[in-house]
Amino acid sequence: MTAEARDVLVLLPTREQLRLVVGVQATGRELFQQVCDVTSIKEAHFFGLSVVRNDEYMFMDLEQKLSKYFSKDWKRDAHEAGGRPRAPFVTFLRVRYYVDNGRVISDRTARHLYYCHLKERVLRSQCAHREEAYFLLAAYGLQADLGNHREPVHVGRYFEPQAYFPPWIIAKRGRAYILRHAPAMHREQRGLNPKEAVLCFIREACRLEDVPVHFFRLYKDKKEDRPTIILGLTLKGMQVYQEVNRAPELLYDFPWSHIGKVAFLGKKFEMRLDGLPSARKLVYYTGCAWRSRHLLQLLSASHQLHLSLRPALQRLRQREEAEEKEHYRESYIRDTLDLDLDLDPDPGGRGSLGSGGSSQHVPRRLSLGSADSCSSSHTSGVREAGEMAVDEPPGAEALHVEMPPCGSSSIRSGHGSEAGSRGRPEGDGRARGDASGPEPSAVVQVPLIRMRGRCAEALYQMPEAEPPHHSLDRAPPGTCRSTNSLYLVLCREDQLLEEFVV
């Protein structure tokens, strides 16, 4: 049985399919390496392999065997299937870590896959209060896919609206409206090369609050028949929604700098806020121990990547701001010269302002709200149209793998608590600025290190040999834990939750 091969179907963000062959004892890393080799992905750390469990995408631990993530048929011999051809096992290559600046991804193939993934997310987005953003995204998408608008070629129905607009916009505005107005916005992007159009699309797509985020359903207490809490892992932290009349409402929006500790005790999920008493914590239930383990690994790795990329993102932001200021400075000088020329009396009596000046210039880009203004819209908490898509894959019914359910049947009766204020802590929600003066930092078992106060450096280490359950160990005697550390803890059900002073 060890030498027997298995067919695996890998679905890419480009909607292409890879049919690969691996051994029955293969690990996720072996399959992932095959995918990277076939697709020529050089920066693979932004992606991961995922499977569908209970209508959610769950990322594989690449060090685990594939048999852990597929049905029992994986281990069965071919003759046990009665000679019938075995259906391939299905997995997805998806973006695991989001970034709002595409320049961080230097590999062309990886950036294209990232762009395609965001396009798919935009088609499922439900930000009804940002309708204009979808038209701008469609213009960037058309420019990236088709290049400059050409009148002889791009006439009539030269694109399909459903490939660039969410269904709710098509239903609201109609196909005729979109086909009439979208080409005009496409024409406004003339001169923007496809690479820059992709970067613009990534930037604007990440300003929609339900695009660069992973959603997971949680139970409010042990007695719930169905999960009503939605945990969102965002670019800068975590959000908590609650379903009210089947519509999600935002309860909390916490950046990493406001989260002091995240702990899992079996099916129990706790989040404690920085600077608040330990009694003021959020308590929810994952329903299954393997979901707790999955969330632990994803939260830990996402926070570490967030910290490691922050200096590079800051440098890119400063450079882009400098380039933008220089662009506006040149534009101002040019417009002033044009204005001076227009003020010169014309012997023919035709001297008038704007006869070729900047007043007739139509800007290429629409003026949209910044990322901060987009995130501030979360406080409204109510969407105008539809329910939030909680990472439920399209056509998942046909690709389901029979897995043990994580419903109310697996949750023991009891009473959970959800404590804490209903609003976010004081502050504007931005990460605190880092200043000079590094402070001592200790290496702990599964740390999430963040820079806070006057700390300029942070030390984080996640041992590769750590067992999957990430049991909790105390620090060696004589060492002190840094006050700049954010701890993420996973305990087995038979363990008591140990407390850390943050």
From TrEMBL:
Annotated Gene Ontology cellular component terms: cytoplasmic side of apical plasma membrane
Organism superkingdom: Eukaryota
Database matches in PROSITE patterns: FERM_3 (PS50057)
Biological process, per Gene Ontology: positive regulation of hippo signaling
Region (Disordered), start-end ranges: 339-441
Gene3D superfamilies for this protein: 1.20.80.10, Phosphatidylinositol 3-kinase Catalytic Subunit, Chain A, domain 1 (3.10.20.90), Pleckstrin-homology domain (PH domain)/Phosphotyrosine-binding domain (PTB) (2.30.29.30)
Bias type Low complexity, positions: 367-377
One Pfam family it belongs to: FERM_N
Biased composition (Basic and acidic residues): 421-433
Gly residues bias: start-end ranges: 348-357
Protein name: FERM domain containing 1
Organism of origin: Canis lupus familiaris (Dog)
Gene, per the UniProt record: FRMD1
